[in-house]
Design a protein that fits this description.
The complex is a heterodimer of chains A (328) and B (282). Chain A has 13 helices and no strands. Chain A has 328 residues and is mostly helical. In chain A, α1 packs parallel to α7, α4 crosses α10 and α7 packs across α8. Chain A is globular and about 60 Å long. Chain B starts with 10 loop residues before the first helix and ends in an 11-residue tail after the last helix. The chains are: A mainly alpha (328), B alpha/beta (282). Chains A and B meet through α8 and α9 of A and α3, β6, α4 and α7 of B.
């Protein structure tokens, strides 16, 4: 097989894996948008907050240590214990549910029946608040996250492909794990929203707040639930991205990578987020591979947006988005 | 043709038990807009009570005050009391009221567009903690009243016709196994034949399931034919009430709401420059 084709295949595979990571972030957006019609600008920061909390708990860091030390003149930073990653993940989940409850209690509860743009503004405010808050709580230095996920080149794939093609593919173990987890997550979410009572209520709330109220659905409960689930998804995304590139401020910028994925897949479709992620992952890697050198490189920064723009023109609701039902 | 009040020997007995009592309530939106200025009414168990009046008279607000959907629209009951079975209810959640057996069908249907018709019906049973078998039995009950919904059960509600959406909304309310349904403007935007059909089903549900109805309606003519008792609202006050049969014969009601005078129905030419003979409130 010609080398070029083999390279392209490897690039495609890596693109798929990267796409899964984009999709993980996009999923969080879709969940909240589906349930409340809110575009949650804070989703990326939630991933950052989740990852920072996870690292903090694992290392036994004292939350708000800078603040405490500044006020009381003490010098404490660590409790001096280490928490196993599984327990730390569970504890972080509890924190994310707490965050969901706070968001609902202090912000969303007061904005029932308001224009979507006002809710959007509220999430922008939330994003910047949360960014500062996580720095205050856990400190702003770059942290290393290692929850024991396998990393580095997958030897098996390398060997097998070498035997077949005489060229070993480089696939990161972490990407494989991310793919498996994303697949499980999507199946769980689809089953939840399509086939359970709470899932149905969630979609009902998304369609019509007032009507949902009128049949006795508690908006408060549904929204805490949705933000919690979005929090879990943010945690998963935070773990994956954090393990890959360290836990730091730039983690919150992955939200920007999720935007074109959403435009492509549709804001309301869980499978759409995945397919959109994959298309963008593969698309930008192949594009860079094929035309990058000719265009002077760095096409990954803008390719996704151009692709999304083209889609917007021809199919505004995205590939899998709900059709906008218009009739009287 | 259909005179609900004729076959009402039981109505005297029913009048004894008042299910819902609204006592002199005042409702203010946004802390400034006074919409209801002292509305009182009583809904007897097992009856169909109609709330009549023109646009902006306060019918919808009265229903929403009862079902407590006012809060999400920044409205507030500032005076008076609403009692259901003798219990004060105006500080309860809408969900609590649904559990107590009071559910509202909102004006303009408000189906969940992207859910299928069947899923819409299932959300009606959200507050009930019962087995799947019971829910299926109730679905069957709703489909018997609305055979049309059975045919459309797998379609997204947003793509069904206005009549089907109204049926879906009423069916959804029935799924909560309510004691009282607050039905807001079921005739809105529907062809006269469909309106008749919907009211026919309301009457059937009322008789067979024993569901009490409080319905707000602009279509005075139809409403008074199916209701047992009527209240007429104007500018946030009750200006007249009485058994439906009496209201239908009342000359003022005839003239103001049924478009009839002593000479019978008028043509448009005569009413073009029409001015009401009198107003109830000056």
């Amino acid at each position: 097989m010609p080398d070029q084709l083999l390279f392209a295949m490897e690039v495609t595979l890596n693109g798929l894996m990267a796409g899964v990571l984009y999709a993980l972030v996009a999923l969080g957006f879709v969940l909240i948008f589906k349930a409340s019609g809110i575009f949650n600008y804070a989703q990326g920061v939630m991933a950052l907050f989740a990852a920072m909390t996870l690292v903090g708990i694992m290392k036994g860091q004292v939350p708000f240590s800078h603040l405490i030390n500044a006020i009381f003149g003490t010098d404490i930073h660590y409790f001096g214990w280490h928490v196993p990653s599984l327990i730390a993940i569970l504890l972080t989940c509890v924190v994310m549910v707490g965050l969901a409850w706070c968001v609902q209690y202090f912000i969303m509860r007061h904005l029932v029946n308001q224009e979507p743009i006002i809710l959007f503004m509220a999430t922008i405010g939330l994003a910047y608040f949360l960014e500062g808050f996580s720095d205050l709580m856990w400190g702003s230095e770059i942290k290393k996250l290692d929850v024991g996920l396998p990393q580095g080149i997958n030897e098996t794939i390398d060997r097998v492909t070498f035997d077949w093609f005489g060229y070993g593919f480089f696939i990161d173990n972490l990407d494989i794990v991310a793919t498996v987890i994303a697949a499980l997550l999507v199946v769980a979410l689809v089953v939840f929203s399509q086939y359970t009572r709470e899932g149905r209520a969630m979609r009902a709330v998304a369609d019509d707040h007032q009507a949902a109220l009128s049949v006795g659905v508690s908006l408060n409960f549904i929204w805490v639930m949705v933000w919690s689930v979005a929090g879990f998804v943010a945690l998963v995304a935070g773990i994956m991205w954090g393990t890959k590139s360290g836990v730091q401020f730039s983690l919150s910028l992955i939200a920007l990578k999720a935007l074109p994925v959403l435009m492509l897949g549709g804001f309301t479709s869980i499978p759409g987020a995945i397919v959109g992620g994959l298309i963008i992952g593969v698309g930008e890697k192949l594009f860079e591979f094929a035309l990058g050198p000719a265009l002077g490189g760095a096409t990954e920064n803008w390719f996704a947006y151009v692709l999304a723009l083209v889609f917007l023109v021809f199919r505004p609701q995205g590939l899998f988005g709900e059709k906008i039902i218009e009739r009287v | 043709m259909l005179d609900a009040t004729q076959d009402q020997p039981q109505s005297a007995a029913q009048a004894a038990e008042t299910l819902l009592e609204v006592n002199n309530i005042e409702v203010i939106y946004n802390h400034v807009i006074l919409v209801l200025k002292g509305v009182s009414l009583q809904v007897p168990k097992g009856g169909i009570t109609a709330l009549l009046g023109g646009n902006g008279a306060g019918k919808t607000t009265t229903l929403k005050a009862v079902s407590n959907l006012l809060h999400s629209e920044r409205g507030e009951v500032t005076k008076g009391a609403i009692r259901y079975r003798g219990e004060t209810v105006h500080d309860l959640d809408p969900a609590d009221l649904v559990r107590k057996g009071v559910i509202q069908v909102m004006e303009g249907r408000h189906c969940f567009e992207h859910l299928t018709v069947e899923e819409n019906l299932l959300t009606g049973a959200y507050t009930r903690k019962v087995s799947k078998g019971d829910i299926d039995a109730d679905l069957e009950m709703v489909y018997t009243y609305f055979p049309r919904l059975r045919e459309r059960r797998r379609s997204q509600a947003g793509y069904t016709s206005g009549g089907e959406q109204q049926m879906c909304a009423i069916g959804r309310a029935l799924m909560s196994r309510p004691e009282t349904i607050l039905l807001d403007e079921p005739s809105m935007g529907l062809a006269p034949q469909l309106v008749e059909q919907i009211f026919e089903i309301v009457k059937e549900v009322n008789e067979k399931e024993g569901v009490t109805f409080l319905l707000a309606e602009q279509n005075t003519n139809v409403a008074l034919r199916y209701a047992h008792y009527g209240y007429i609202l104007e500018s946030g006050r009750v200006v007249m009430d009485g058994p439906a049969a009496e209201l239908r014969e009342n000359p003022d009601v005839k003239e103001f709401y049924l478009g009839m005078s002593d000479e019978g129905r008028k043509s448009f030419r005569d009413v073009r420059s029409y001015r009401r003979r009198k107003r109830w409130l000056s």
